[in-house]
Give the backbone structure.
Amino acid sequence: MTSAEQFSEFAPFQRLTPTQREAVAQLARPVDFTAGSRLFEEGQDAVGCWLIQVGQVALSTEVPGRGQVVVQTLGPGEVLGWSWLVPPHQWQFTATAPGPVSAMELDTARLLALAEHEPAMGYPLALGFCEILLTRLQSARARLLDLYANPRER
Amino acid sequence: MLPIPYRVIGRHVETRDSVTLDLEPVREQLPPFRPGQFTMLYARGVGEIAISISGDASRADGILTQTIRDVGAVSHALHALTPGEVLGARGPFGTGWRFDSAYGREVVIVAGGVGLAPLRPVLIEAINGRADHPRTVLIAGARTPSEFLFREQLDSWASIPGLEVVLTIDQPAQDWAGPVGFVTEPLSRLQLRPGSTTAFLCGPEPMMRFSAAVLIGRGMAEKDIRISVERNMKCGVGLCGHCQLGPLLVCRDGPVVDYALARPLLAVREL
């Protein structure tokens, strides 16, 4: 079992009341991954969500001729795994731990059920997830600008 | 106002389009510089451009260190200079980072691409005066692993106690095991004490805006965020108006300005 306070460090749970966070804590368990572990694979059914506490996770996809290309890395304080939240509930990328990783793993089936059963908890939870999603989208857009390119080569 | 001749005594290739030149005065030398200031460098017969000084401000031997990216006619000519050749230098000009005003505070430095060059003197100062700062964090972003300036130095800095170095790249790369993502990502997950932190940002304008937005969103005051703005400089001494940015003449009132002053100006199109 995980302590509810730990959840306040992660954006999706910051809007929850202590009681709601306690309910989420019941659905979490601490997990460790060794270097080279695959947390999930592109195309598989999306089950689970990880709150990274230690280490780094690389999200990658297979590109012919280039192998597994890492498109983003996530570190401590970040949330890994979104596809359990929306249909078709399949992982879009592969998640790998280049080094040791410690995280809290959430039982997302029960979390979804809890959020649907109790909108007063589901709404702030969804808002918190939206906040992270927006941050990631903005960062991806910033990268699309290719800001560091030599102006002569644009 | 007249360029003073300096001879290239060292040329270090940083990336495929950037070099760092060590320059020694041929006769007289320019006054000492403050981190954040720039010089006007003159390539004989081609022209003159503003280049931030990237060397150690505490150096007393008169050697000037400048990092140049080959982007236009003048920078191309300067970039091509080899040891023994001579260029002209004026300066130092403009405001500095005022790093001394961050005494006792935590320091967050965010550099994007060649924006690391004007921040290098600050980093050197931060490393030399580590006792004055409870914590110094450098977040540097580049397009790819091979496009980081001062790569060897970054690696050695990463091992200095009290200095956290985060290098992140924008574009996926095979030979890279570090973070992949925009500089705002490590910035947004940084343990931050907003009331006792000073931030120094340098890089493309949108990068600085996005980074400042993250810091402000996390509770930092605009006045505690300093950025280095860039406009085409001509005279360097606030006379010609070439680098005007609203009420500022960047060569005189900048390039380093508080974000409280810069933010409204950066929001005006074509200013």
Summary: The first strand of chain B starts at residue 4 and ends at 15. The interface with chain A takes residues 17, 69-72, 112-114, 141-143, 147, 170-172, 174, 176-182, 184-186, 188-189, 203-204, 206-207, 210 of chain B (CB under 8 Å). The first helix of chain B runs from residue 73 to 79. The CA atoms of residues 190 and 231 of chain B lie 31 Å apart.
